[in-house]
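agent: user wants the full assembly modeled, not chains individually. Plan: 1) parse entity lines 2) check alphabet per entity 3) run joint structure prediction 4) return tokens. Steps 1-2 passed, three entities, 1192 residues total. Proceeding.
--- entities ---
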Amino acid sequence: MALPHPRVRRAWVRGALLAGILGLALTGCGPHYVLLHPAGPVAQGELHLMVLATIAMAVVIAFVLALLAYVLWHFRDRPGRTAPYRPDWTHSRRLEVLWFVIPAVILTVIAVPMVGQTYALAKLPPKSDPLVVDVTSLDWKWLFQYPQQGVATVNYLVIPTGRPVLFELTANSPMNTFWIPELGGMEYTMSGRVLPLWLEASRPGVYWGHSGQFSGVDFEQMFFTVRAVGPSQFQSWVATVRRTAPAMTEADFRQLLNPGTVGTLTYASYPANTFPAVTHGFTLNGGMYMVMGNQPKDNASQPMGSGAASPSRTSREAMHTMPGMSGR
Amino acid sequence: MSQAWPEMEEQTLPAEFAHEEESIKITGFWMFLVTDVLIFASLFSLYAVYAGRMGGEPNPATFFHLGPALAETLLLLTSSFTVGLAIWFMRRRQVGAMTAWLVATLVLGATFVAIEAREFLGDIQSGYTWHQSAFLSAFFTLVGTHGAHVTFGILMALTLLIQVARRGLTPVTARKLYTFSLYWHFLDVVWIFIYSVVYLGGRLG
Amino acid sequence: MPAFVPYLLHTLFPPTVLRPTEIGADVLIVATGVIIVTVLTRQKKWGWLWREWLTTVDHKRIAVMYLIAAIAMLFRGGVDALMMRTNLALPSVHFISAEEYNEVFTTHGTIMIFFMAMPLIFALFNAVIPLMIGARDVAFPRLNAVSFWLFAFGALLFNISFVVGGSPNAGWTAYPPLTELAFNPGPGENYYFLALFISGIGTTITGINFLVTILRMRAPGMTLMRMPLFAWTTLCTSALILFAFPPLTVALGTSLLDRLFHASFYTLGHGGMPMMYVNLFWLFGHPEVYIVVLPAFGIFSEVVPTFSRKPLFGYTAMVVSVVAIMVLSYGTWVHHFFTMGAGPSVNVFFGLSTMLIAIPTGVKIFNWIFTMWGGRIRLTVPMLYQLAFIPTFVVGGATGVLLATVPVDYQLHNTYFLVAHFHNTLIGGTVFGLLSGLYYWWPKMFGYKLDERQGKWAFWLFFLGFWVTFGPQYLLGLEGMTRRLWTYPLGLGWHALNLISTIGAYGMGAGFVVLVYNVVWSMQHGERDLTGDPWDGRTLEWSLPSPAPEYNFARIPVVTERDAWWAMKARGETTAVRVRPDEISALELPRNSAMPFFLGLGFFVLGFGLTFRWWWIAGLGLAGILGAMLWAGFDYEDRKHVHAEEIRRIEAALGRLEA
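--- prediction returned ---
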């Protein structure tokens, strides 16, 4: 295939580049790019790292592309090429060391903050008093229980701004991931395990959340909304719910467990022992989170983060050891 | 096969390695054993994780029968010795002795399988099925996979006995007998791990 | 009507396989079948098909069969992809139902990895490796045929699920508990586990076969460090297969025990841990990524020197980096589930080990570029794929580093960013590499070249189509679109990029059509390769006629250095291609066998019976398998004698016998 004249091609390349940058400028700043518009410190930190890694990688990509273009241009076999033909030049220790070292350096630039950030995200901010929300993914709906307030919602969340929220994640269904892109990264919900995840909204707003793990036929119904409101508004929301919403009965809970979809629901209270909803009567003991299905609920729902070691941290630390390594 | 059986005096290599083609097949068999080691390693990892999630059922003290397991261990260890003798006689072209020791190996192996089957049946009669828990699933699968391997080995050796009876010792039958012995030793090693991790570990751990 | 007939009809053809797409597929399958049977019968070709192909143990013919199967599977997987992209083109479009979409993305992933990429790789292994290392065949020719038939019948079992009983629908990774009976009672997941189990046995045997072939059957003088790099990557790929497939076998087997025999490995109750499956699966799954990409690295390491007329730059560093990648690839599997709460220390370890792999990969990229430096670059189709590979794969690798950065992965996990990333590496790496290798070795396999002009059209459509498809998907990831969604609402702003992506996918589809046209056209009109060395090649396979005779080498060459054929040509040695009559002696060649075909058939029947829990059919299959194995054990006539005179006659006809 004949390529156009170099000058034509260069103009074309410049045009394409310009269009690309313009396109990105127009769309990249749009509010739809939820990952680029963090609304909380967790998402903010993750975005910082993403930008850093992207810049480092862009340097690599640009360098390789430029080198490739130069080599291709210079050593292409066609009449009139004067580039030297050096079939005996087959290795260079110095060059090989160079392109071993440079990528290593670039990766170190990413790796060092990565390590710090990973550990930082694993624990709650010091001296924080998080709101606890117990999350259960069901087929195909989200059940949110507020153990400190005693209320429960389905498929929507209301959280206060400026205060960390500790989500305790489990499932009574196939796996899902719990994800609110504007607030921070996702974590799996799995039956038989409880995983902690803390997020925080720094400004009021309505955000959407979704599952990232396919869970069956109505998977696309796993969207939910998150309303972040000021602390006093949050308190009044809780008060309104307690006053006006119905109580969740055992039968209501069983109904929720059945596969199917519902809209949003609100409950002023919920029965004990529904989190984690222990399935099929199998008792979890010796599990990694030490949540006993038959224990009173308040064991896992005391206000967190006030002690020396936050519970979030201990539960994450506990996950280092595989279950089953603990004695029987 | 038109290849001649090499004279013992000229041989520096054991009979089963004497022909390049057969020697290559032995290399291939070692590679197969690598994959089998990894199958058992994966099953052991499942067992190790699930062993801690028994939830009190079944009770290790009554579930693991150390007596039969010890008997099984002794049987399999002895059979590893007898199969070694069979190969020793094979290399000296003493077909009769080789056959005798191979049959002894099979008898020991069959007894092993019988004891294991009896134990499994007993467990099931006591109400322990693999449906009950992940631990029992892992236990029956790990030990059962080994038992199935032993059973398959016995069948393989039976066909080998027929082949030797019909063709005598040739480079091909010698190689097949040798690879069978490798397989058998391998199963013995796996059993030692099962005995120490599952049975001893289960009772003491 | 007997009572079992409605039961049978309902089981085999439930409503889920009576949708328009499935009925269309039925019609297509029946029509194709009728045409094939008619042609074979009219031309009286049944005997020929059976004797020359279905029972062959010749590695060159097995390669052709792998290739045909792989291209058919590429078509199937590609159609799946287009169905998905069509459904996602616009918000709230319901071109296919959610049920159908879930089946289609599952079969797309499974087919592309297990039934397209793997057989295409094995096609090239079989076509090239024995010729390249100066061997007459692989170490175990009959087992090689067993491998092929296990793959072929496994693929058949997987594909009939579309029209009989219903397809699997839980993604190509098949995580429990979604695949457990409680959530997935149909036969679909049985098909998945059994088909992968069967073809996985075949793959493991192939791994053993090529490992032993390369370790034990190289021509005299070809030390390991004189081997062509494609042989090195084949060696490392085979070793990876050996170590990666057993955990998969256990993951599949335990899932099957759960589904068929009510074990409790991963069920919700009874203390099972789905995460154990995830661990075992990715213990296989991550090395698998390198199983499919290392051969592409090997292909490029042959293509670049040939079309730059220059030896590979930094041969030793290339070998070391392949081995390093092989070893490191076992230590990264957790990066597929950083978001499963393994704790920061575990995540950091696996994040760092993943980044570490980027270093040897970078070394390879630079060495390819510097192979071209100071060379004479010819822009043939194989070389174009290589040149497209470098930027595409570098972007794929760079986004891989982003995903290895643990906190970033928390945000990007399972989004379209991830989808774009792995297509960048799997298409940009594996598919570009395999297409490059296909165009490069096509004359050696078939005796004619593929037309260059049409090849370039296919290339540009495919390459540009690729970027139009997957470029926007990175941005979709940043917009928060997660994978495996069958449709999406308007308000999220995902529609524009999705539409562009769909247009690109059709561009790639057009590229595939041109590629097939290129093959069909070239069969008739392609330039015949009479020299055996159409590209001015460097390695031993180019010293043979195209296609090579059944015994490959009338006389095994002696190797004294790397790029052995190039060196012989440089020294003006004609002895490599011309043989004196007295140098030819009689040969023992592997004899054709029907056993592998029947063994595969036995596995197919077993798999089908287990899928529907029809135990007597399964028993029949098992009996067939045992019968075929007994047959193999008692069959001592697996070699045939070829007289020296016969070989002299063939060599003379090829013009290679010295007077």
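agent: reporting back. The interface with chain B takes residues 139-140, 204, 207-209, 211-212, 215-217, 242-243, 245-247, 249-251, 254, 257-258, 261-267, 270-273, 276, 280, 283, 630, 633-634, 636, 639, 641 of chain C (CB under 8 Å). The first strand of chain C starts at residue 587 and ends at 590.
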